[in-house]
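Input (structure):
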C-alpha cells in the first residue's frame, strides 16, 4: 500500500488521466478502501485541487474548474513533449516571455533523465527561417488581443476596433479588410493563422465577408452586444482567407489556366500557394499571388503541368525572359 503522500499523487494522476472515476474504481486501483478515497479527495481539495463528486447510482469523482491553476502531473512523454514544444514550437509571436517562464518552471521539476532528453533534442535540432520568401519581419501579436477576439467569437458578441493599413510599407497578405476613420463594427467568426500572420474572418455592417489582419487591429471597448450568428456556408473560413489574400493581398496577382483537372493541381501545390478553381474535367484555374514576379514564376514552374498565362503583362514578360534564359542554357 502506498504512503499517504505518494497515494495522493497517484490519485491525482488518475483523476487527470480521464474525466470520471467511481470511488470503487479508484479504491481498487490504489488498493485502499472507498473511505480512504473519500479522505484523500478531501486532502486534495484542501491543497487547491477542485474535485467534484456526483452522488447516486452513477456517482463519480472528477476534477473540476477552480479559481486558480493547480500543479499538473505529467507523465514522461507529456513532460518532454511540452518542454520541446516550448523551446522549438512556432507559437504566437509576442508570447516569447510567457514561453520562457513556463519552460523555466517545467525544467525546474523535470527529473535529470528527462531534462537530458529535452536538452538532447534541443541541442541536435535546427529550425529553418519561418519568414521564407520575404524580408518583412514577422508581426508582433499581443496575446491579449487574440484572447479578446476569441472571447467575442465564443460569446457571439460584436467586435469593435480601429483598423489602419500601413502606407508605403512592403506588406504581405492584407486581405479585403479596409481601413476607416471610424471604428469598425463586425460579427467575428473565426481566427485563422496562415504564414505567420493572424487573420480575423468577420461579417461587416454591409453584410460582406472580410478578412482583417490582427496586427493592424486596435480593439475598442467591448460592446457586450450579441449578434445572431450566420456562419459561412460550409464553414470554409480557412479557404476564404487563402482565396481572399491570394486575390487581394499580394504585390503580384495572377490567374493561371492550367491544362489539368483541379484535383491534379491540388496534389502538386502547397495550400499556401493559392486557390484552385475547377473549370472542366481537364482544365482548372490557379489563383495565386506573391511579393514578386519571380516567386509567382516559381509557383507555376513547380506545377510540372502545361499552362496559359493571360496576365498581368509584367508576368508574361518575365516568363518570356526566363523561358529564353532556360533555352539559351541548353548547348
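Output (sequence):
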Amino acid at each position: 500500500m502506498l504512503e499517504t503522500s505518494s497515494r495522493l499523487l497517484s490519485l491525482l494522476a488518475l483523476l487527470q488521466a480521464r474525466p470520471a472515476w467511481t470511488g470503487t474504481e479508484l479504491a481498487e486501483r490504489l488498493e485502499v478502501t472507498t473511505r480512504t478515497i473519500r479522505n484523500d479527495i478531501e486532502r486534495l481539495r484542501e491543497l487547491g485541487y477542485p474535485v467534484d463528486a456526483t452522488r447516486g447510482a452513477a456517482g463519480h469523482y472528477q476534477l473540476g474548474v477552480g479559481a486558480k491553476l493547480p500543479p499538473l502531473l505529467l507523465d514522461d512523454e507529456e513532460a518532454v513533449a511540452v518542454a520541446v514544444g516550448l523551446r522549438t514550437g512556432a507559437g504566437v509571436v509576442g508570447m516569447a516571455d510567457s514561453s520562457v517562464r513556463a519552460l523555466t518552471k517545467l525544467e525546474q521539476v523535470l527529473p535529470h533523465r528527462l531534462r537530458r532528453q529535452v536538452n538532447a533534442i534541443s541541442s541536435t535540432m535546427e529550425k529553418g527561417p519561418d519568414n521564407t520568401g520575404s524580408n518583412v519581419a514577422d508581426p508582433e501579436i499581443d496575446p491579449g488581443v487574440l484572447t479578446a477576439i476569441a472571447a467575442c467569437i465564443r460569446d457571439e458578441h460584436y467586435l469593435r476596433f480601429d483598423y489602419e493599413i500601413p502606407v508605403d510599407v512592403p506588406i504581405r497578405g492584407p486581405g479585403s479588410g479596409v481601413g476607416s476613420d471610424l471604428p469598425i463594427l463586425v460579427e467575428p467568426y473565426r481566427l485563422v493563422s496562415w504564414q505567420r500572420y493572424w487573420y480575423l474572418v468577420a461579417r461587416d455592417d454591409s453584410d460582406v465577408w472580410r478578412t482583417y489582419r490582427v496586427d493592424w487591429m486596435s480593439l475598442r471597448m467591448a460592446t457586450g452586444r450579441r449578434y445572431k450568428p450566420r456562419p459561412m456556408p460550409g464553414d470554409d473560413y480557412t479557404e476564404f482567407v487563402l482565396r481572399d489574400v491570394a486575390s487581394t493581398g499580394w504585390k503580384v496577382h495572377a490567374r493561371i489556366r492550367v491544362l489539368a483537372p483541379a484535383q491534379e493541381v491540388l496534389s502538386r501545390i502547397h495550400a499556401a500557394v493559392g486557390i484552385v478553381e475547377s473549370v472542366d474535367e481537364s482544365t482548372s484555374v490557379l489563383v495565386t499571388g506573391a511579393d514578386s514576379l519571380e516567386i509567382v514564376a516559381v509557383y507555376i514552374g513547380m506545377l510540372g503541368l502545361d499552362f496559359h498565362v493571360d496576365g498581368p503583362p509584367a508576368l508574361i514578360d518575365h516568363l518570356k525572359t526566363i523561358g529564353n534564359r532556360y533555352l539559351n542554357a541548353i548547348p
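Notes: Residues 4-63 form a domain with the Arc Repressor Mutant, subunit A fold (CATH 1.10.10.10). The longest strand covers residues 184-194.
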